[in-house]
Write a structure and sequence with these properties.
The complex is a heterodimer. By secondary structure, chain A is an all-alpha fold. Chain A has a domain of 44 residues: Glu-tRNAGln amidotransferase C subunit, N-terminal domain (Histone, subunit A, Orthogonal Bundle), CATH 1.10.20. Chain A has four helices and no strands. In chain A, 19% of the residues are buried. Chain B has a domain of 244 residues: Amidase signature (AS) domain (Amidase signature (AS) enzymes), CATH 3.90.1300.10. In chain B, 40% of the residues lie in helices and 13% in strands. Chain B contains 16 helices and eleven strands. An eleven-stranded mixed β-sheet of chain B has the order 1-3-2-4-6-5-10-11-9-7-8, with helices on both faces. In chain B, strand 7, helix 9 and strand 8 form a beta-alpha-beta unit. In chain B, helix 7 runs antiparallel to helix 16. Chain B is globular and about 65 Å long. Classes of the chains: A mainly alpha, B alpha/beta. Chains A and B meet through helix 1, helix 2 and helix 3 of A and helix 10, helix 11, helix 12, helix 13 and helix 14 of B.
């Protein structure tokens, strides 16, 4: 499988990245080099191997008390609106402000 | 006391007698940062207000003759991927320029609760993505041992600050080697705790199934002390373990005699610098002389580790980094008329090339039509890599390997070729994939005087044994 410029454009669109044409050419080259090297994974037959979805399960197998616990569903204090909004580029002091959402 | 080389115990006893006091020590530390940081670029920000407030509290305790907490007066730097209320947090990225987080990471709170004096935020590769610190949006860090060389990455600032005497210890993060490899390059100790041992709350996420927080220190004993402070369950991190935290410093008293040391042949193959091989082999010989039994073991899937790691890590990164959109914090492009243009332009201007490369790679690996071939395949091979370790740990207690294939390389040497940079992580990524713990401990120097680290890997939640083995290497070198 080789990566084309169209593939890079499509993925950039999905990832909300804008790329200049110079950047695009570089990314096509780099992705092909890296994914080419990565294709050695296909040497392995993994048809009967489960994917590792949880590190915690693997790392805590058989250890009593180790499993991640569910917390009680209780309301606890969180960050104040004022402190959080103070970090934002633009607010009206109640909400985050962003440019126009609906495009034509 | 020469605090620029001192360990935590020496700093503590000095502070107890006010020779120097915690406040004087903080002043010395800031003077040192002012003098040396321009050439090294380890610190991105200093936090004198917070440091002097903590130091004054320790000095009051010392004056009253009250017992001092375990890190009383110890100047510690924090990698800039961890948040500290009131200090900037950039993660080495321009996209977080100007962000001042409104809360503390759990590890930051725990250090301060144990009496540490937090002096500032340390440079790193952008979002911890890199092996040389050259991907920082705020300029590279220079290795204090040789200024034309990289300090390693991504916790390059943390390792450099400890090595240069600009902090007694530091916190770093390690997703694929980012604590251990810079520790090796700068000649300090770097510990990777088991996944779940240390809270990640307040760590700016790169790859959540791989990220760990851990200490970089001058001695193995200091690493044990710091781990004891930061380890333990945190209700704010659902993946943090409720297993009790052992006394790691106490554990160091137990000799290594009888410990079973495994040497995986796959870590001593092609690409390993002969001087690194020699230094690591002599570390293994030291362990044998200390009474350990040494035996060869095999981790047969090791050669698949780099592709597996970079597929898993970039997939998770592409998802984690979606939150940087110019809405809630950090940089926003000014000239965008619509929301989607604002997202794209902000991210395009403020993310560096390596971060974009990894977001694209991860998005590609997760996208329709490629998910099974790349992401799922990598997660299956991850199972095989983990099974390799579990099988090896049936026979041995720890594994000893090189931390990195070479000593510190020159700035600019690998920046044009992402793949050659990725291969710098060849011995470290496996531990992150499997969730196990490890350490890098200095074990010698190259003929050019560059530090070399030995990596010791241990079972899940068996940091105590890893630390004991590291102490034996440290004592013999």
């Amino acid at each position: 499988m080789s990566v084309s410029e169209q593939d890079v454009e499509r993925v950039a669109e999905l990832a909300n990245l804008e790329l200049t044409s110079d950047e695009k050419a570089g990314m096509v080259r780099d992705l092909n080099s890296v994914l080419g090297y990565f294709s050695q994974l296909n040497e392995l037959d993994t048809s009967s191997v489960p994917p590792m979805l949880q590190v915690v399960e693997a790392s805590q197998a058989g250890q009593p008390g180790a499993a991640a616990s569910l917390r009680p569903d209780e309301v606890t204090p969180s960050l104040s609106r004022e402190k959080v909004l103070a970090c934002a580029p633009d607010t009206d002091s109640f909400f985050f402000k962003v440019p126009k959402v609906i495009e034509r | 006391m020469n605090w620029k080389q001192a360990g935590i115990t020496e700093v503590q006893s000095a502070v107890r007698n006010a020779q120097p006091s915690a406040t004087q020590l903080a002043e010395l530390c800031f003077q040192e940062i002012e003098a040396r940081n321009p050439a090294i670029n380890a610190y991105l920000a200093v936090s004198p207000e917070r440091a002097f407030r903590a130091a004054a509290a320790i000095d009051r305790l010392a004056a009253q003759g009250s017992p001092l907490p375990p890190l009383a007066g110890v100047p510690i730097g924090i990698k800039d991927v961890l948040v500290m209320e009131g200090s900037p947090a950039t993660a080495g990225s321009r996209i977080l320029e100007g962000y001042r987080p409104p809360y503390d990471a759990t590890v930051v709170k725990r250090l301060e609760g144990a009496g540490a004096v937090l002096v500032g935020k340390l440079n790193c590769d952008e979002f911890a993505m890199g092996s040389s610190n050259e991907n920082s949006g705020y300029g590279p860090v220079h290795n204090p041992v040789a200024l034309d060389r990289v300090p390693g990455g991504s916790s390059g600032g943390s390792a450099a600050a400890v090595a240069a005497g600009m902090a007694v210890a530091a916190l770093g993060s390690d997703t694929g080697g980012s604590i251990r490899q810079p520790a090796s390059f700068c000649g300090v100790v770097g510990l990777l705790p088991t996944y779940g041992r240390v809270s990640r709350y307040g760590l700016i996420a790169f790859a959540s199934s791989l990220d760990r927080v851990g200490p970089l220190t001058r001695t193995v004993r200091d690493a044990a002390t710091l781990l004891g402070v930061i380890a333990g369950h945190d209700p704010l991190d659902a993946t943090s373990s409720t297993l009790p935290v052992p006394d790691y410093v106490q554990a160091l008293e137990q000799p290594v005699k009888g410990l079973r040391v495994g040497v995986p042949s796959e870590y001593f193959g092609e690409g390993l610098d002969p001087e690194v091989r020699g230094a690591v082999e002599s570390a293994i010989e030291h362990l044998r002389q200390a009474g350990c039994t040494v035996q060869p073991v095999s981790l047969p899937h090791t050669r698949y580790a780099i592709p597996t790691y970079y597929l898993v890590a970039t997939a998770e990164a592409s998802s984690n980094l979606a939150r940087f959109d110019g809405v809630r914090y950090g940089f926003r492009a000014k000239d965008a008329n619509t929301l989607s243009a604002m997202y794209r332009r902000s991210r395009d201007i403020a993310f560096g090339a390596e971060v974009k490369r990894r977001i694209l790679l991860g998005t590609y690996a997760l996208s329709a039509g490629y998910y099974d071939a790349y992401y799922k395949k990598a997660q299956q091979v991850r199972t095989l890599l983990t099974r390799d370790f579990l099988a090896a740990f049936e026979q041995v207690d720890v594994l000893v390997t090189p931390t990195a294939p070479t000593p510190a390389f020159k700035l600019g040497e690998k920046t044009d070729d992402p793949l050659s940079m990725y291969l710098a992580d060849i011995y470290t990524v496996t531990a992150n994939l499997a969730g196990i713990c490890g350490i890098s401990v200095p074990c010698g120097k190259s003929s050019q005087g560059l530090p070399i680290g030995a990596q010791i890997l241990g079972k899940h939640f068996d940091e105590a044994t890893v630390l004991r083995a590291a102490l034996a290497v440290e004592a013999a070198v």
